[in-house]
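Risk register update: the risk that structure generation would not scale has been downgraded. Supporting records follow, first protein first.
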Amino acid sequence: MERNHNPTYSIIDSQSVKTTYAAKERGIDGGKKVKRHIVTDTQGHLLNIMVHPANIHGTVAGCEVFRDALEKYPSLQGVCADAGYRKP
């Protein structure tokens, strides 16, 4: 049986990381400088990524990065996220 090449389900998560001082925009979040959000399909294939200052709340950036993934892959029907994304 062949798998559908269009992803129907995705997983989103973020990571706070320190950055170099050469970065244009930085925010402060518990000593971290930037956050990166990724959206993958259930096989782990990268669907979208976003790097932003750490002072932008994860739910705001998470919605944006998922919205962009949905535009690229309109076949997406669902997303799995941890509790950090539960607020609007």
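Supporting record for the second protein:
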Amino acid sequence: MQNTTIPISVIIVNWNAGTVLKKCVQHLLKQTLTPEVIYVVDNASTDNSLASVIGMDRIEIIALNKNEGFARGNNIALKKITTPYVALLNPDAFPEPQWLESLLAAMTSHPSAASIGSLQLMHGFPGIVDGIGDCYHISGYMWRKKHGELITDNDLLEREIFSPCAAAALYRLDALVEVGGFEESFFCYCEDVDLGFRLRARGYTSWYAPSARVSHIGSMTSGGQDSDFAIYHGHRNLIWVYLRNMPFLLLLLSLPLHLAANFFAILFFLLKGRGKIILKAKFDALSKLGEILKQRKKIQSERRVSSIKLLSSINIKK
């Protein structure tokens, strides 16, 4: 199948992505199945990245007056979408021609799925995996499966995952609307795992499609995984994902592990001379405890699956 339009919209949230934004869009326009529309949500970029895609085929620009973050940026675009499926793609991710076709095929073959993840490969490092889906540990710790590892034959097998990395994923629009989209207070980092947790609580599944390949630079505009920005948002939001989503029974059982994981994270960053930023992340997470507990009450009241069923999708061991 070549150049066939499909009922999929794509959202790219951009903030100072430079030349890679245009490269990302160019890869999208070479798909074997062409999306109906590509929304570029620009978070008040100060570089020339947005100008580089204005006037390109199928592009609709949503220019924001300030940096609203990844979560809210996607939610703003979601309100415009009428197609049954929506793909999210980071501007520093470059999909292979069959990316959308492979994602749609996987979604079609798994009726219970609300999301499909991609095979993300590290850009510039042939054969090295960036991730094959997000994992969630009973302690509240989360990670991208196979990140930084050499690709193997086993990585080319389709499987169920906890949730996809939103850097390159396909979602059912009705499922996203049902759970309210991304939690905007997260700004960025961990918001995709939080969304995946809420979708699972409603009874949906998530799958990994190995033929849906993207080359991903990763954390390009946030200063890298070791930046203060990434540490702060990642470790603040880690607590919020856990407290919002973990069912009461599992929370009682896992709370000692969660406290231990946070303690060792604080100790690790203190020893690296990064104590100020990790302590701020944890303090700010707990300062919103009342609001988080209100959100938790709503999320848990809408849960449709048992704690045991959720536990089966959560990693007990790393």
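Residues 228-311 form one domain. On this basis the risk owner (M.S.) recommends closing the item.
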